[in-house]
Design brief:
It contains 5 helices and 5 strands; from the N terminus they run βααβαβαββα. With 147 residues, it is an alpha/beta fold. A 5-stranded parallel β-sheet has the order 2-1-3-4-5, with helices on both faces. Helix 3 packs parallel to helix 4. The structure holds 1,3,4-trihydroxy-5-OXO-cyclohexanecarboxylic acid.
Length: 147
């Protein structure tokens, strides 16, 4: 039987987590976030595949790969592409599993250009403002909805 799989996608600048505007994004690094997700997922029998990219096309390629590699759900923080990328929205629309959009900060409390998300037009759930805990909440929601 193939293992249940989640693809976690992090958009531009999230490789700098821990040192990038920590007053907004906190002190946890991307490795901390990914390792915590893997630890929690493995207990529930899920495999987690994580990718960060500063390039829109690479994120789109990863979403395309998720259509056929057994991924049941995508957790995505598209970062700034949230507010600009119709191409990421289109790619997610071609993916049939669950999509949870995560933002570390509460984008609705910030500049008005961050209030609109193209990805939210596709997302089954949106989490914003819980810090890096938001990724854990997304993972829990996916695991719970599958059991
Ligand atoms: C972010 C919010 C975006 O507006 C911003 O461009 C990011 C990170 C967040 O996680 O809070 O890079 O997605």
């Amino acid at each position: 039987m193939s293992q249940s799989k989640i693809t976690v996608l992090h958009g531009p600048n999230l490789n700098l987590l821990g040192t990038r505007q920590p007053e907004i994004y906190g002190y946890e690094t991307l490795d901390d976030v990914n390792n915590a997700l893997r630890e929690k997922a493995v207990i529930a029998g899920w495999d987690v595949n994580c990718l960060q990219s500063n390039h829109e096309g690479e994120l789109i390629d990863a979403i395309h790969a998720a259509r056929t590699d057994g991924t049941q759900a995508i957790i995505i923080n598209p970062a700034a592409y949230t507010h600009t990328s119709v191409a990421i929205l289109d790619a997610l629309n071609a993916f049939e599993g669950k999509v949870i959009e995560v933002h570390i900060s509460n984008v609705h409390k910030r500049e008005s250009f961050r209030h609109h998300s193209y990805v939210s037009l596709r997302a089954d759930g949106v989490i914003a403002g819980l810090g890096t805990q938001g990724y854990q909440a997304a993972l829990e929601a996916i695991i719970k909805s599958a059991t």
